[in-house]
Write a structure and sequence with these properties.
The complex is a heterodimer. Chain A has 6 helices and no strands. By secondary structure, chain A is mainly alpha-helical. Chain A folds into 3 domains: about 30 residues; about 70 residues, Cytochrome C biogenesis protein (Helicase, Ruva Protein, domain 3, Orthogonal Bundle), CATH 1.10.8.640; about 60 residues. In chain B, about 65% of the residues lie in helices and about 10% in strands. The C terminus of chain B is likely disordered. The chains are: A mainly alpha, B alpha+beta.
């Protein structure tokens, strides 16, 4: 019961933490200059320089000045961040957005890294547990068999390991 | 020179083909014991000698191209497109790798150089080296075939010859560009050597782990070159592109970073194989993947598969590389399946919490990071295939996905050294982790007290949050690594009576590999500290009339004049700025804008003043056409110099790791001697 209560408390704390982090990440910048900087870093310059609109400053860029002005106007007109991004995507194409959206096939771009990380993490944990189990089973078998004596073959194997890993004994 | 160069390349190809086939036949005869008219040993030796001669032939070709650049031989289309008469000497040399044909020639030449060294050292293990040399010959055949038939560096210019060439791309006319590409290529090409040894060891069912010991130096040196190449590229982007940053997650930057990640994973996991005979298959596939990723990187740089700022080297040789990569992959899979029984091993771990499991998690994180970058780089291509329209995967994607992974990796950098091999106790964990944890929370407190705010204007600042995490974990990792030095040093100090600093040096000499590795970890920490500084960058842009002022951070910039200059290569406009701090002039800066005459392309030359705390980074953006006044953009970029200092530390640590350890008994004797003298 105590364990359940404890785990329930932990669960609630984890929920609260996740909620807090979600709220933090979902909150956007509020004032116009902060929004300009934020949105400028979510859009690409379309001149072909492959730089973010907010960072493009190469000499004589034919696009970034006009696009920045459009961004300033859009913020001043009271549109939401998403409306502004949609407007730019509609006008210049989806490549103007600096990152995939969270819709349709684009969602795969966001999910795949975390899915792969989670799967690999789970696999590594299971592997470590499995290998630890093998080691424990060996230790148990050795304990049952009595004191371990190093025979000639094993001595040779150990010598070989020492020779091949050198005096430093590995990292 | 064109004829000489072309023939040199043809001869190099013929010699590489001979090396491949004669080597393969000789090794087959040796393996099966079949009788033959020619002794297989002699045949293998002729193959080796052909490889050596092949290097000389491709060296002649590389010399011919450089000579053509220095003598302004514009009859060669390549020289016409990438050089001009007024180009300074070092940049004429850099013309060798400034375009597609030249950079592939550099690839081939460096591969020839590595193979040359390998073939000269064949007596270390004649048979293993013969296998590895034959595999390298196969790779050389590919590059020489591309150079002879697809992208010919000695192709002649068709039509009336112009008086002068088109000049080198202005972006490349910067000192780093003379060394960044060769360093990067040394890293890329160098991974072919451990790849060849791994494949060779697998093919011949090489007993034991000795091949790893043989290739350790190659792998470390290659890794170091790749690291230096990547960081020089970052510095070039910082100093030349004028956007105030150093890493833009460009596909070509990503292409160089991916093999670095898998190579780093290999350097760690290979220790599991050496120490415990585990993870043999994993290590073989790590080095296979690293080599394949270097090929993918070269493909991305050249084939125009994804859009990149490195557009100067694009062409249509993608098919060649795709076919070659498929062949390499097929060979790797085939050999692995055929010889997989040789890689069978007993895997066992004594504890869930140990150095071994930390290496597993380290590999997990490094490979996940590699996957994320590969995924982000190729997703636009995938999206176009699936949806018919391209998307951009830029910095916002990587910042959200890769930064947390990077911070986790930083955390493991500190945890790994604190965990002993085999197993550990809860008490030992508590003892080892106490000081790093105190350092972590102390740094959080210092950050908050010094004004870092994770919440700004009612909104959460992801950048500041990551910066605080990065700085605090860096402090913990640094403390952890330092405590390892001090703990060992204290023991030696007690034994020898020497001071702690000398004792730490003796400790390092006794196990250069371990402590060299720790120094590399300190370098990584310094790099993360530098990266964290980006969260606090400040930017100001202003039109600045004569004696006009603008402020950024603690500095005030006053415009003292805007003037022009010219030479045979370019015309420039620049502003002279006095920089004030605390009301006094501290120094002068002259940001510049150049227009290169041959190509008529403009280029910014950023003025940077660096110190340990920050960089003052000033860009001259040109003049306002309406007012005629110069426009200045100033950045205050905190902690950037830590990144470059971190690189120096990483290189130093790698050098230490490459030096053979001093025999503990002789080290003890040397250490004890002065103490004995002192006693007398």
């Amino acid at each position: 019961m105590a364990t359940m209560l404890r785990s329930s408390r932990w669960f609630k704390a984890a929920q609260a933490a996740v909620l807090a982090i979600a709220v933090c990440f979902s909150m956007g910048a509020t004032d116009a200059s902060a929004r300009f900087i934020d949105l400028g870093h979510r859009l690409m310059c379309t001149c072909g320089c492959a730089q973010l609109l907010g960072e493009c400053n190469h000499v004589g860029c034919p696009e970034s000045g006009r696009e920045r002005q459009e961004l300033t106007n859009a913020i001043a007109s009271g549109k939401s961040d998403q409306q502004i991004l949609d407007w730019f995507a509609a006008k210049y194409g989806a490549t103007m957005l600096a990152a995939p959206t969270g819709k349709g096939f684009d969602l795969v771009a966001w999910i795949a890294p975390f899915a792969v990380f989670a799967a690999a993490l789970l696999g590594t944990i299971l592997l470590v547990r499995h290998w630890s189990g093998i080691s424990a089973a060996k230790a148990h078998a050795a304990a049952v068999a009595g004191p371990h004596r190093v025979d000639a073959a094993e001595r040779e194997r150990l010598d070989k390991i020492r020779r091949e890993t050198g005096d430093d004994g590995g990292f | 020179m064109a004829t000489f160069g072309s023939f040199s390349l043809l001869i190099a190809l013929a010699l590489a083909v001979y090396n491949l086939f004669a080597g393969a036949v000789a090794l087959r005869l040796l393996a099966t014991g079949q009788p033959a008219r020619v002794s297989p040993e002699k045949l293998a030796d002729t193959a080796r000698r052909a490889g050596i001669a092949g290097f000389l032939a491709i060296s002649c070709a590389a010399f011919a191209l450089v000579w053509s650049a220095f003598t302004n031989d514009f009859s060669l289309a390549y020289i016409l497109e990438h050089s001009n008469r007024a180009l300074p000497g070092p940049y004429k040399f850099a013309a060798l790798w400034s375009g597609q044909e030249g950079s592939l020639l550099l690839w081939g030449w460096l591969l020839g150089g590595f193979s040359f060294i390998l073939r000269l050292r064949h007596k270390t293990d004649v048979r293993l080296y013969a296998y590895a040399g034959t595999i390298l010959a196969g790779i050389q055949v590919f590059f020489l075939a591309v150079l002879n038939f697809a992208v010919r560096p000695f192709a002649l210019y068709q039509g009336p010859l112009p008086d002068d060439g088109n000049g080198l791309n202005p972006l490349l006319q910067y000192p780093e560009m003379v060394i960044h590409p060769p360093m990067l290529y040394l890293g890329y090409v160098g991974f072919a050597v451990p790849f060849a040894f791994a494949l060779a060891a697998l093919m011949m069912r090489y007993p034991g782990e000795k091949w790893i010991k043989i290739t350790r130096t190659w792998t470390l040196v290659t890794w170091m070159f790749l690291t230096v190449g990547i960081f020089l590229g970052m510095h070039w982007a910082y100093a030349v592109l004028g956007w105030g940053g150093y890493w833009g997650w460009d596909p070509v930057e990503n292409a160089s970073f991916m093999p670095w990640l898998t190579g780093t994973a290999f350097l760690h996991s290979v220790m599991m194989q050496e120490k415990k005979g585990m993870m043999k298959s994993w290590n073989v596939w790590l080095i296979f993947s690293t080599f394949l990723l270097t090929l993918l990187g070269t493909l991305l740089t050249r084939a125009g598969l994804v859009s990149s700022v490195h557009a100067f080297a694009q062409s249509s040789i993608g098919t060649w590389f795709v076919v070659f990569m498929l062949i390499v992959l097929a060979v790797c899979i085939f050999v692995y399946i055929l010889q997989r029984s040789h890689l069978k091993t007993d895997h066992s771990l004594d504890s869930l919490v140990s150095r071994e499991s930390s290496f597993l998690f380290n590999n997990l994180v490094l490979l996940t990071a590699c996957f994320v970058i590969l995924w982000g780089t190729l997703f636009p291509v995938l999206s176009e295939y699936v949806e018919g329209s391209k998307v951009t995967v830029g910095a916002p994607f990587y910042n959200r996905v890769a930064v947390p992974i990077g911070l986790f990796l930083l955390f493991l950098t500190g945890v790994g050294p604190l965990l002993p091999w085999r197993a550990t106790s809860l008490r030992a964990i508590r003892r080892n982790f106490l000081i790093p944890v105190i350092a972590l929370w102390a740094t959080v407190a210092v950050c908050l007290v010094s004004g870092v705010r994770i919440w700004k204007d009612g909104s959460f600042s992801t950048g500041s949050f990551y910066a605080v995490v990065s700085l605090s974990v860096s402090a913990a990792v640094f403390t952890a690594v330092l405590s390892e030095f001090l703990r060992g040093g204290a023991v030696i100090a007690k034994q020898t009576g020497k001071n702690l600093l000398v004792s730490c040096w003796i400790l390092t000499r006794r196990n250069t590999r371990r402590y060299g590795g720790y120094i590399v970890h300190i370098g990584v920490v310094m790099v993360f500290v530098g990266l964290a500084g980006a969260a606090f960058n400040q930017t100001v842009e202003s039109e600045l009339p004569l004696h006009g002022r603008m402020s950024v951070g603690p500095y005030t910039l006053e415009q003292m004049g805007a003037t022009q200059d010219s030479n045979l290569n370019y015309q420039s406009e620049f502003a002279v700025l006095d920089v004030y701090k605390d009301g006094k002039v501290q120094f002068q800066m002259s940001p510049e804008k150049r227009v290169y005459l041959a190509s008529q392309q403009p280029q910014t030359m950023v003025a940077i003043h660096s110190n340990i705390g920050w960089d003052l980074y000033v860009v001259y953006e040109g003049t306002n056409p309406d007012t005629g006044q110069p426009i200045i953009k100033a950045f205050l970029n905190p902690l950037v110099s830590w990144i470059w200092a971190g690189l120096v530390m990483m290189v130093f640590g790698t050098f230490i790791a490459l030096v053979p350890s001093q025999n503990p008994s002789s080290a003890r004797a040397v250490a004890a001697e002065p103490a004995v003298k002192g006693a007398n």
